Fold each of these.
Amino acid sequence: MSFPPPVSDYRNLARMKKVEPEAAPTPTHSSALARLVAQSPWSFALCVGLLVCLGASWRLATAFSVPALASDDPIGLLRTDPALIYYISERIVDAGGIPPADFRADPRVESPLLTDLPGMFTVGQEFLVAWGYLMLGGSVPLHVVALYLMIVVASLAVVGVAGFARELTGMRVWGCLAGLLYIITAGSYRTPGYILVREDLSFPLFALHLYLLARAARVRSAVSVVLAALAVTLALATWHAMSFVFALEVVCVFAWYLRTGDGPLRTKNSVFFPLVLAIGSMLVPVLHSKLFLLSLPMQMLFVMYAVPRLPIARRSGESGGNLRSASISLVLLLLLAAGCAALRGTLAPGVGDYAHVMDMMLAKVRNLGRLPTDPNELSYGARLLWQGIFATGSPFLLAKYLGVLVLIAPLALLTQVEPWWRGRRADADARAAVTVALGVVTLGLALLVERLIALAALLLPVVTVLFLASRFTKRARAWWVVGALVAQMLVALVAFDHAALRDWYHPIVVQQLGGTIRYMQQHLEEEGSVAADFVTSSAVLAHTDHAVVLQPKYETARSRARIERFVVGLYHESPAAFAHVLRSEFQARYLLIDAGFLRGVRYEAGLRNDSRAPPSNTAAYRLLSNSPSHYGKIPGYRLLYASHEFRARGRAPRYRLYDLVADGQ
């Protein structure tokens, strides 16, 4: 995807040729390193490589700060998404590095249903980890391979950031500065130390896509356009949330297209961008199952390609943009959206896999980002998603994780008001305007969804160098650069507190979960699936031979419905009725209770957070109780194991494993 070339002014060009070039200014305020980087492409590559090493070192230091990660035994370390990724990686390892025979119909992930693993999940990182493990001959534990390999891969995001900034500014020094700002921004380090997180692969691919896209806008060759499209296709294939990130990018490009009347897909080779995406959406199972071909970004790309080629829309407007072209584009987009919605309803009636995301975003706008006191004001999908890293952000969090970039982004936006107002069509204006718009929009949305801070940390270093490169005298610019770097480093040093990482791998939690899993490995019969919450289920899946009924990735309506049935049944039905649900609907033999986690889902179950305890006639009242007389003796539930680590400290066990015996026993 590339923007059309600017209209040449040959009279001005002729006058420019007659002007003698000015003598190069004496570089009194630029360092020797800056001059070297500016003069040599190899020094630029060396500088970026050094930044990759620094970022990886910082991530390694974070991992080494958690004692639990020094273990060669993964049992107890893996829960929720990482444990699911670990399970899929193990399956690929067992198959010799290729998809296993039941890859498209796995019987264990959501028992008793069959699961199309690459169709339901963004499988990609798993192959990378499995191949790394096999290359080492199995001499290093799989989770250790995953930890070190993905630290290196995640650090490669700086390559895309630096290359993107270098393409937009035309100077290698600014590319290095953007890369340096990226690695000293706290928001760039959401995942260090966590074993197996999908964005560790998807983010570097998206950053590479931005760099290749900016390059394609300059060189306009077929190969450059194909590479930019391939990079974003791989990013989309390796993380569910990337589809929304890409949608933001295309929306900003589409807004510029509407404003100027010049489409970024007007050049001959630009057709390869939507073409590669369309082919990818059919070949990649998860994109095919989500009907990405019918998504809003694909609709916008089609409009930007087709409308400029219509005879009625070929005539360009004045500097304010082509109103006729914009009107035709919007009408066509509305027709496409309606047609795609109808086709989607025919191909996958009533699915709505991503409906919970829209529900949550609309609810956040409606409630100004505040979680309603009454959970029944939200759909279950919105309640399920509105937690943890998807909680509402705040100005404090933005300042903490993004530092001075938060202050510079609005200034950069002011510099783009004039191009947006006038609808200027110069190629450099288009790339800068869209980049700044994307960065500022992401920054605003990070106030609604905390997880988007990581995306803002990827974009705002580039936005910052665009602002610094286009303003100030050389002396003033040097002071701004030094001030921004010093301030950003100071903020980062304060913001890096890794408390969440240490809590996740807390020794007591690791010991309790590890002890529970080992008991299951040694004492449970091989037959019989396990019912547990979606966080703990994947740990059972990864380390035992038992199937589970829930899994942590609820990007499908089917998975959310199963989680809702489990949670609502726990908090609203009697112990006998809940046991019947587990045995009949889920066909589960065992029940594993994580009391610490399940006490925190009462809001999702429809109970107010200020309610003191579940109703006394519910399964939650007995199963989550701290009293052995309540959780230890329940008709229909035979207690097999309780995590002894907590009992040794005089506290109720967090993990309780039950055999769901027949009624009346």
Note: The radius of gyration is 27 Å.
Amino acid sequence: MTKICQSSEPDPVAEGGSKSYGQQATTIAQSTTNLEATLHEQQARTEDEKAITYAIKDAERLTLALEAAKMGWWDLDWTTRQTLWSPRHEILFGYEPGQPERDYFDWERRIHPDDLEWIHQATHYARDHHQDLAIQYRIIWPDGSLHWIDTLGRFYYDSQGEPIRMVGVIRDITDQKHSEEALQDSEERFRATFEQAAVGIAHVDLEGRWLRVNQTLCNIVGYSEAELLERRFQDITHPDDLETDLGYVQQLLAGEIQTYSMEKRYLHKEGFPVWIELTVSLARHRQADQDGSLAILGEPKYFISVVEEISDRKRCERGRDEAEVALQARARELAEANLLLTQAATLINLRNQELDQFVHVVSHDLKAPLRAIANLSEWIETDLAGQLPAENEQQLQLLRTRVQRMTTMIDDLLTYSRIGRVAGTTEAVDVAEFLAEIIDTLDPPPTFTIEIESPMPILQTKRLPLSQVFANLISNAIKHRDRPQGHIHISSREQAEFYEFALRDDGPGIAPEHHDHIFTIFQALKPNQESTGIGLSIVKKIVETEGGMIRLESQVGEGAAFYFTWPRNGG
């Protein structure tokens, strides 16, 4: 049902007469236009509200994303230098958050003094060239700690191209910088180690081409770095060693071994072989496992080779092998020589025993007739007492003197033959007391004085040989004096391993031309009825057998001085 309402508004037709259809159409069109404008305005207002809502949501999402990334943002009025900072920006610059409106000087106060000038230059360059500003710089917090900032900024310009505003974001990259510095230090240390290593180091690709080599390796093989980088390790490996090396390489690539070492030969650039000890491992690419939480080793990347030259060691080994062969041959020779020496020593001992027995027999057989001759002369002298002329009595006495001399010579020869062959025991010998006993036994004439200088040492030595040396030297000085009076001075001087004893007399002395042969057996300087020419040769042989030396200093008319050394501790 259609409801018809009457309007109280005056009817234009009724008031002004009836309108034409044209006028009515115009009125309707105008109303329609107004209605459409109103609708468009309402729609535009709605779109603006939606846009504002979306912008707010976008800003919220952007702020949330920046916070999640721990990044701050800033908005700078280029004309007034007034700045709007996000709370994260304040925190990153060491400020307490809560004052978002900052000025230029709040930013400048934190910049490291060494970075401020070039930051200004970079900013002005970005402004003048309408480019984004992307820089990294240092800031200093109030506590003195240093922080690194990464910033990205963009300028906005008016219609005349003048900068009016700059906005951007920042983030703290201190940890990243520390990591970069640590990585750089590590790389520098690696580079220094690589280049300065005392052994050759190389990186080699999977085909055998040299990728990187140090100078030590170049020195080992005689090639320059550029020359090596044009070659493969197979090219300079001795053919006899290549198959073994490649076998290890295949095992390494197959994952059967983690590393290998071998001795091999490179061929030097000049053609001769160079022995090296090679150690090889495999560098691999890193990749994540299925959940991406753990980095594991992936495909092979390159070989890492360490090369140590061992040519000297090989030469030593060859020399040692040759020396060992020679030593074994020498050992066989020594064994044979030792056997011969043992046989000779046995034979010598046998001969010594025979010699001792012979000397004993000879001594007995010679002394027996000599004693008989001496006894016979005494019997004749006794039986013919008073009947023999004085000349005959003198001849009988001379006969007995010659017999006594012959007996003494036999005893001296027996003593000489036994020197060094008869072992003796060592004992503590107080040389001062020892000399007093010897002098008392020799019974020098009352007109003869013997002076013993103090102190004298106490030796751990063989008593009998030392007694024979002193007794012979003292008795010689007494025997060969040229006047009734005489004097002997005995002294000692300590040396490193010996004592040197000196016996000086005031006798007639010995001419220098006779010094060399007085120690020779049977070489008496002035043969007489008492001298056999053996005494000094016995002394020399005893002293040298004990490891010492004897010498003479003398001039005619100035006496004689005999010096001999004797070990501090005799064996």
Note: The CA atoms of residues 490 and 503 lie 5 Å apart.
Amino acid sequence: MSSNVQTTFDADAYRDHGWRTALDENYYVRLGLEPNGLIEPSDIAAAFQARHGWWLNRENQLKRGQAVPILNTVGPHVPQAIKNLSLAKNVLSDPSTRAAYDRELFGSRLKAWREGALRGAVGTLTGTVSRDVVSILVAQGVTLGFKEADARQVVRAEFDRAGLKVVDGASEAAPTPVGPRQQTPASPAPQQPRPGSSQFAGTPSRGLTAGPAHTIEGRITRFPVSDRKHEISIGGVVVGADGAVWAGLEARNKDNSRVDWVGRLQDGKWTWVTDRLPGFITFMTLGVDGAIWFTGTNGYAGSMGRLEPNGKITEISLGSPTPDDFDDKGARLFEPRQRFGWGEIISCSDGRLWVSGKRAAVMMSVGPDGVRRYPMPSGINPQHLTEGPDNALWFTSNWNERSGSKSVGRMDFDGALRQYALPGYAAGPVTMGDALAADIVAGSDGYLWLAESERARLSVMSTAGEIMNRIDLQPVNAYGQGPGAITAGPDGALWVTGGLFAPNYVVRVDIHGSQTYLSLGDSSGAHIFTDGVRLWLLMKEPDKGDGRWPPVVVCRID
């Protein structure tokens, strides 16, 4: 059998939730296989035999009239599931029918992207657009699993359909190293805007205003979010299908009242696109439908939301993210645990959205067929998520008093779970309250990269769960913390912020471990992310000691 195909069948996991895959329209999903050229006939036969046998046992139990609890759930689906599995096996086992199905599957996915998210993004554009916009849209197609040539072809076709003209304009090269490595980076001095830099022309509603953008050392262009009359808390941030930066923010007024918003930054102009929200949006991701999906706290604690470009929000209930109202030491809380909300949300190549439980032993996925819940074994608390190079879901598991575990988890899209312990000081958590665990991302080298917050280092893990390398980072931030957030940059390198509460720096690490640094002074709370062409930061600038709130800025790294 091929090495990257699941060769064992977990009957318990299939009974709990995996049986639903037999009802999926995708033949590969029905058999628990990944659509790639490495699947051999023996893989298909083994996958079919295990799943088909499971359903035949349920059919026999029904015929005998056995009182088996699982039949209350799966009984109505037995005939269709058996039929679906047989059809999937027959189509995929024959090379010619499988090739035709692969073409059909690829074409339908490409068509769905073109007529959905891509067309929606192109519909927001008029007149002439820069080549950067083309690159951003093509990069989104590649992220969804399409070949660059195919993605570029349909992007150009949609531009032609919309009558758009592409010009050279603001096209720039991907980020390059920021200079020689510094053991103790010095804070750069602010400079005047360079010729041609974007100016911040928008005026947000509800009394929030902003000033002009400026560039530091020719590398960072800053777009202020607030006028320093309000304390701004930073939440989720993502680049939308329209190429704009979207951010969840919370403003605290002088009377200590709080107002939650979503803002949109495009072409140097910042606008608020939502009215008052019932909760704080803490994580965002771009869905395959072109909408922005998010999780949050307070009013969004038991749900996820879908944000359309016009600001309309639709909520989907996920229930409480925790199974009880006890803290990690077993003491009862004064209020229900769901106030903490759900954790990170990402969009994966299986077409579903995946959500971590945030200190709870559960994972959720949401798709056209509804919500699926995947309970985790004791001691596994999913935190940060990424899709690995093996097209599986990978996550960090936070430490708690009852389990003491620090690990990385791998879960197939059908729910099959593996756990890999991290020896010694490992991935998370930072030391304050309900803070985020260490981040994880798939690198361009085919490995998983982990930012370890208890030590100033990165760990490189293979898809087999083996630590291949550990890279020490210098310096740590002012609070003695190691890295906070990590993202894979458009240049193939990994980009890391230096800690959750006071980042102080951004470090670029290539796949060979070479490091270069860019100081952020005493800034805090930085989120780093990419639109496929450039890198962006959302962060809070240092307190100027003048009695006004420190400014929050969106930064573009050029």
Note: The CA atoms of residues 407 and 430 lie 15 Å apart.
Amino acid sequence: MLAVTGLDTSPHRAVHGSRRDVLPPPSPAYVNAGPFSPYFGATPATGFPQAYGKAQPFVVKGFDATELRRAYGATATGLTGKGVTVAVVDAFDSPTLGPDVAQYAAAHGDAPYRQGQLTRIDPAVWTDTVAASQEFPGGCGAAGWYGEQSLDVEAVHGVAPDADLVYVGATSCQDSDLTDALDQVVDRRLADIVSDSWSDLETDTDSSIDATYDQTFMRGAVEGIGFYFSSGDDGDELAASGAKTVGSPVSLPWVTAVGGTSLALDRNGNYGFETGWGTDGAPLSKDGSNWGRLPGTFLSGAGGGTSARVPEPFYQYPVVPTALAGANGGRKRVVPDVAAVADSGTGFLVGQTQTWPDGSTRYGEYRVGGTSVACPVFAAVQALAEQAAGAPLGFANPELYERYNTPAFHGVTDTPLGPRTALAQVRVDYHDGVDDTYGYDVSLRTMGHDSSLHAVKGYNDVTGVGSPAPAIWPPSAPASRASPATRAPPASPGPPAPPAPPVSPVAGASRAPGGPSLAATVSHGPCPAAQAGAGAMSVPERFAVIA
């Protein structure tokens, strides 16, 4: 027996009374408003008030995978992920995924999908597809997951264009269904690397489910499968939930937790710098004369911090500062392990079919952020590393921490240009999310301000050991990449799980995404970008309207 639940009387979000087997149409359309900078800092917003002593630049339009490959050093290697299979696990399955990803690849110069390169595995029926409501408290809002799915597939394919892709759609966003999807990957050895842009809050989950997840992840480790999870998009979660906490299952010892950064490229498209992702927002005043009190209000940032219940795994001992590991008494697991681009102001362009105000459904593109971007990007980086290694990387954390403070990673801080240089961008949004019919919302977004979390020199709870640098290829320590058939079971990163056979996954809660700007917290949903937590999608925050 791995877990027992249902013995307490406290409310839980896992309600299975909202069964709906028909997937809804695409979610409402979203369009980014300009002006944009062609690269970070290129176009000062001279028509708006200064901040921090100068006119701050407009945000960029959004990166595509070609730019991310170059920024993180993959282009020069020639690696493409050939021979590696990456699985993406989300809830539901977008009815327009096939044509959407093909159109996106063509529009951005990505390699076209070859026959059979993308496989989709779905259950016989869908459940809980409606949005959560008083009548259907277990609703998942299936349409909100379509953008997460499109993002994950497009990001992986763009960064690792020759890797095979397997999309596994869970029946719903409930824990029991998501764990079923993960078990399919392990039971059928569907992939080498698994990208999961969803999570719940540790404070909202029953600790008994940890053993169920751990058992899946440990079996995967023995088979040479690595699991990657988004760390969340609400920083320490205090503002969003009322208590400081980390995500789950991202905080478990057998997964790689992916945090977030703000990425700046130079005029030539090369890596400029990164800050820890943390955004404070200040709206333009009604008279357009100032931004109010800076830096503004915390909006979103990479999830991170110290677990309240997961012991510190062995691979973190030599690297994670005692002040972080001991924040909740004893020594506990600290999140994240690594990081990649996540800031919605320096985010990734995603393409998907959306529902437009005139009722039509058609393809469109928009810039998104959140650790929902960082997770598939880093998973794709690992696909390139696995190709270079010539064998499965499997559970990568021990090796990732061995390579801490080496040229394999960019050490990311909140003040990459010095402590006296504040970094910010001006962002313009359509008030209705689609066009200028109802005017614009304008705000100043200050970077490197992640709630109570700080990206400082060395390991930190915003970016972990850092973001990928060119020296991450090829990886070292070939012994850790032995064939799964001959590899001995890995040493336990924490207290051993009960030696029991698999059991039915435990039910849990799952919260679906909202709209563009991704990061999903399930109470299990996708990883949101500019707003949400471990994996949901959310429309950017609205501020003062200007005609």
Note: Residues 209 and 506 are 6 Å apart (CA to CA).
